[in-house]
Amino acid sequence: MRTPGKPRKPRKLANSKIEQSQGGVAPINEMRDFAQDVVPTALVDTEVYIDDADSIESIMVVHQNKNESVKPAVQPVELSERLQERRAERRRIRLKQFGYVLGAVSGLLFLLWIIFFSPLFAYEYHAGDIRGLADNSIVDKNKLADVLKSHNGEHVLLFDDEELQADVKNTIAEVDRISSVYRFPNGLAFDVVAHVPVACVVDGEDCQGIAQDGTKLTVPSDQLASLPKIKGFPEDVDRKDAMTALMSVLDALPDDFRATISQLSIDQHQMVQLTLTDGRTVAWGKSEENDRKAKILASLLSLEAKFIDISAPNAPVTSN
């Protein structure tokens, strides 16, 4: 193993030139004096500072004289007072909300009272309330007006047409239908449909007008003369069934041909016979296949036959 050698001997460093020139000591750098600008400071108010010997009361008096608008110190609010204020504010909010709700409900109730219970919307009859009737209508307008006047005071928005229909039918048979139409603000108009007389049932010297459904009508004499006459019914014939059969025959005929019928009759076998205004006779037969018989009769009327038998529509017969 190799033995380590001896360390080298330290070498003395040479002195710098400054040390050599100054006797081995480095000189201290000296600061030169330079001329500087002077900035004057602001004047200091001695009253702003409080010395230990000054009195706080005297300082407050001086400041109060200089500025009278200085406010006193705000006293701290206790927690209980703050809670009371919050509770009072909540009560005010609740009362305000309750007032709004109460006002809205009151307004709604008042509006409902005006619409449904006040006399503002109560009906009162006027002469122009009846519509749909011709000048020569068989309906007695004075009777109809009396029925409508009996409904004065009823609420126009709650008017019952069914009740009115029943009242009118019990009083005026000539009215087929009646309905009301609201007119702002408190008026009603009534659309009336009258029965149309289709025949006149002869009973001795009198003749009773009837409608298509068999309703007996009061018909003026000038209109009765133009209606087909129905002779008296046989004793052994059910009057209701016989009337139904005759009405079925008339219903199958066109309006222009119906006006040419002067008389209808039915026997105990439910056989219908027509007498025309020109004297010709049509044996209709039973009230069966009425639409087909009406078409056959329309084609045979152009013939000069005085008697037309269509009781068997498959084999019609004509004769002079």
UniProtKB/TrEMBL annotation:
Superkingdom in the source lineage: Bacteria
InterPro entries for this protein: Cell_div_FtsQ/DivIB_C, FtsQ_DivIB
Endpoints of the signal sequence: none
Region feature Disordered, mapped onto this chain: 1-25
UniProt entry tagged with the keyword Disulfide bond: no
PANTHER family the record matches: CELL DIVISION PROTEIN DIVIB, CELL DIVISION PROTEIN FTSQ
Domain (Cell division protein FtsQ/DivIB C-terminal): residue spans on this chain: 208-304
Bias (Basic residues) ranges: 1-14
Protein species of origin: Arcanobacterium phocae
Protein name: Cell division protein FtsQ
Residue spans crossing the bilayer: 100-123
